[in-house]
Amino acid sequence: MFRPTHMSPLLLLLFLSLATALTCSASPQIHIGFSASPQSQTAPFESLFTDPTGNFSLCFLRQNQNHLALAVIHVASLQPLWLANPTHLASWSHTTRLSFNGTLLLSDPKTNLLWSTATTGGDTLLLLNTSNLQILNKAKATPIWQSFDFPTNTLVQDQNFTTAMSLSSQNGLYSLRLGNDFMGLYANYPENDASSLGQLLYWKRTALEAKEVIKQGQGPIYARVNKEGYLGMYQTSAKPIDVQKFDSFQQTPTASSFLFVRLEPDGNLKGYYWNSNKSSWVLNYQAITETCELPLPCGSYGLCTPGGSGCSCLDNRTRFEPGVGCFGGSNGNLCSEKIGGDSYSVIRRTGVEPPHKELDGHVTTPSSAECEGLCERNCSCWGAMYNNVSGFCYIMDYPIGTMSGSGEEYKIGYFKVRKSESGKNRVGVRVGVVVGVMVGIVFIGAGVWMMRMRWRRKGVNGMLGEENGSSPGPYRNLGFDSFKSIEMSGQR
Ligand SMILES: *[C@@H]1O[C@H](CO)[C@@H](O)[C@H](O)[C@H]1NC(C)=O
Ligand SMILES: *[C@@H]1O[C@H](CO)[C@@H](O)[C@H](O)[C@H]1NC(C)=O
Ligand SMILES: *[C@@H]1O[C@H](CO)[C@@H](O)[C@H](O)[C@H]1NC(C)=O
Ligand SMILES: *[C@@H]1O[C@H](CO)[C@@H](O)[C@H](O)[C@H]1NC(C)=O
Ligand SMILES: *[C@@H]1O[C@H](CO)[C@@H](O)[C@H](O)[C@H]1NC(C)=O
Ligand SMILES: *[C@@H]1O[C@H](CO)[C@@H](O)[C@H](O)[C@H]1NC(C)=O
Ligand SMILES: *[C@@H]1O[C@H](CO)[C@@H](O)[C@H](O)[C@H]1NC(C)=O
Ligand SMILES: *[C@@H]1O[C@H](CO)[C@@H](O)[C@H](O)[C@H]1NC(C)=O
Prior knowledge:
Elements: H1 9-20, E1 29-31, E2 34-36, E3 45-50, E4 56-63, E5 67-74, E6 79-83, E7 90-91, E8 97-100, E9 104-108, E10 113-116, E11 124-127, E12 133-136, E13 145-146, E14 154-156, E15 161-162, E16 167-168, E17 174-178, E18 182-188, E19 199-206, E20 222-226, E21 230-234, E22 242-245, H2 252-255, E23 259-263, E24 269-275, E25 280-286, E26 302-305, E27 310-313, E28 344-350, E29 352-353, E30 362-364, H3 368-376, E31 383-387, E32 392-396, E33 402-405, E34 411-418, H4 419-458, H5 464-468, H6 475-490
Parallel strand pairs: 26-33
Antiparallel strand pairs: 1-11, 2-8, 3-4, 4-5, 5-6, 5-7, 8-9, 9-10, 11-12, 12-13, 14-23, 15-20, 16-17, 17-18, 18-19, 20-21, 21-22, 23-24, 24-25, 26-27, 28-34, 29-33, 30-32, 31-32, 31-34
Bound molecules: 2-acetamido-2-deoxy-beta-D-glucopyranose (NAG) (8 copies).
Signal peptide: 1-21
Domain Apple: 335-419
Keywords: Disulfide bond, Glycoprotein, Membrane, Signal, Transmembrane, Transmembrane helix
């Protein structure tokens, strides 16, 4: 099977046993016949082997207590840079096994996970000092497989991001992809029987072509994080067709450090550099700098007010609840619903607009009534925004997310709410809250009455006043704080 040409069999055996014993092996290679299973019950990760600098490691990475991902991590921070199986985790168990016989294969009989590189003919597995994991065949000049071609949510410096790839946020809700002349962030809608809509573009960066222009017919563009501190787009030349500068652009101490961009669970694309002095990652770039321009900062049918006064609901009668939003959230469209206009109710609100309206199509209509009419008659329309000054009518043919509060009263919003959903949150929650409060009052009343009777009997008075002070609900504070934290992470 293996050809021990440059290593004596004894040495090879020693190497293999060392590697299988999960000692942090100095050698950045693995040969055919390698096999390993997790050993520790508690370790956050188990290194299989590291790159020549020791900065990066291919390892078993513990996820959610007792699950396992095969990962390339940055050792000093445990920051995962690549995961083999981000959506289908294995169990952290001695039956889970990683083996290399030309194919790198992770199998877990418990969860039926079988992940493999599906390659043939590989003889060496190598971790480069760029964090790229490669499978090589001695006879071939180029690697037959590399982790750089299968990014998860992270793109490290010098990794080529092509039109065939996508980054996906850890929660699976958002993705980054390239178009002909742009890069875009998309919200993924769950595949749904009624939905023809797969993805919604919510952020777009079109190549500025300042240093180099796109040559038609010369092949697709690609993107790369450049060590000098920018996210570049390229086509045929080494000169970029577009440059998105990081804060550390061409600054000496940071430019020489390691950089990556990551698609975050809130749908933002952020860049970081490694500060070895502080042993921490420093935020260096954000595609979206205004919180209200993120895809769902206040949930469905939420209203986000730029400048930080927080989240509310498009419908004044509904109170914004953190983590829940306003109306649960819809998907699909209204086309399969019973015909007759009974399937939805309507909310109107002025001074609001879709956060990325320039990416929505618009038509010109003489009045807001005509604009609403276009939406009302079309079951794939969820809402419309009419600009009473320009006459532009923006049609939202996707489920309503968070609107941005512009405060400009000539912007007139019209939104459909699926009947079942408005009912659920408003009536259901209200009734629930009222019943809960009443039951609570009865209980507290009974308790107070009983205590008072006891204290009276014991002759202890004047303590009730202090008790009453502790009643304000923590709910509002929680909401405010959680919004504040979103906001802070959205600002620099
Ligand atoms: C890699 O290792 C070198 C030497 O230990 C260190 O100076 C550098 O900061 C490390 N880089 C990262 C990204 O950890
Ligand atoms: C490697 O192992 C897998 C699973 O045991 C097997 O299906 C595959 O054929 C093997 N490949 C080679 C080249 O031996
Ligand atoms: C990484 O490896 C390449 C060649 O394999 C070498 O030129 C480069 O200096 C190395 N970088 C670091 C930081 O070790
Ligand atoms: C990225 O693409 C450039 C230009 O095609 C190429 O020279 C370079 O080797 C590629 N890098 C990797 C890591 O594949
Ligand atoms: C780390 O500290 C050294 C010495 O104080 C300094 O020269 C260097 O610029 C610092 N690096 C970063 C990334 O801040
Ligand atoms: C909600 O309240 C705002 C400000 O008080 C008001 O301008 C708006 O018309 C109200 N909207 C609805 C739907 O009641
Ligand atoms: C309904 O809206 C969709 C999306 O905006 C559009 O493609 C379609 O043509 C519209 N249908 C009609 C009948 O206007
Ligand atoms: C829209 O503009 C027209 C003409 O300027 C005005 O008469 C009308 O009241 C406005 N409508 C709203 C809802 O602001």
